[in-house]
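Researcher: Structure prediction, please.
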Amino acid sequence: MLKTVRNVAAIPQLTRQYTAKAKRSVLLQDTKKIKDYEPKLSKKAGHRVYVWGFQETGALGLQTDVKKAKERYTEMVHHPTRLQFSDNTDISDVATGYGFTAYAVQRSDGETLFGCGLNTDSQLGFQVKGNPKDPANLDVIIYPTAIRLPRENGETDDDMQVLSMSAGRAHLVVVTRNGTVFTLGNNSYGQCGRSIIDEERYSGSALVHRISQADICGEDDEIVSVECGQDHTMFLTKLGRVYTCGWGADGQTGQGNYHTAGKITRIAGDIEKERIVHLACASDCVLALNEGGDVFGWGNSEYGQLDDSENAQTQINTPRALTLTKGIGKIKSVAAGGSFCMALNTEGLVYTWGYGILGFGPFVEQTSKPQHLLPPLFGRNDFSNATTVVSIGCGVFHMGAVNSDGDLFMWGKNRFGHLGLGHKKDQFFPFKTAINGKAIKVSYGVDHTVALCRPYI
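Model: Predicted structure follows.
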């Protein structure tokens, strides 16, 4: 049998010839086929607010109809939901109390403070019916409503802009740009910085207590921030001094005793000669940070939050330098919950300790020394190896952290859906919460969470 040998070289090769001019023509045609698309960009200065958690108190401010607000299915919001009020109002700050929320705003009508939620102790000011259909009892405000701050002659809208604010269990404290302090709500323990009046009625009260910062810290200093615990209040000044008032049964006022105090007093102890730059407290354990990155604490230490020694005190009434945070680097932020604490160092690493859901899984519920949560839990991976945590915070029963990409991670107790994960199950590791924006500030309430965000584009 003969084999046929094919001459491959003899087979003509098919090629397509283009001139340089033809190539340019084809490229020009392809370019013309591309459609120009210009997306509608949000305002660069515009902030979005997302809310989630327990809604029955009105703290989320999502309902505008009284009848719908009473319906059963509106009890909880399990996913971050955009607040309509923030679409029409420039919100600059948020604060969450026990079942209520306050918003610092900038508006053309001169209003600078709004609030919604529980108003049983007039923590949202004196509210009146604006509509005949409104409920007769205004103990619950279902939509953000203006809180009127009393002005003196000559005070401008700019003077009344909110510099700092914080909310406790049933009181709200606001510091304005001109250095005036306003306190609203329950003063049973002197947390509003005024004398305690026996059997004082707080419901339906029109009293908004006004204090000049000079009466607190003198003429040579000024208040830069306020931090409220459960039933006490702390003021931080430009010179790094700390002033407190309120309930002191666990030593949380730091005044060297366990009494209640209606008078605002500067505290000393180990922070007397320190320049404090940050205060943190969600309940009755307080952490403070100085400019050198050292941590101090006072108040409740029943779970070793402030002292891990064998014979440690469970209530500390004077600020004390903490030794248990030594060795974890220079600290740039701290947070304190009901029974646990957090610290963030300058490398962006997060540490937790105390008792509760600390982020290490369901089998670790207590540690007396700060333990490191691994960076991959907060979004660091091979494709984003520069991602670090930039801020941390605590509610009474849960914790949160925001990374450099603006993503929010939360973990802890979730009875009211306030982790925003779509369910009520407890979360034992940090888990990303789906917010349609980059988180700027997150306020962790006892049963709800509010996030101030900026748009992605």
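Model: Residues 20-33 form the longest helix (14 residues).
Researcher: Thanks, that helps.
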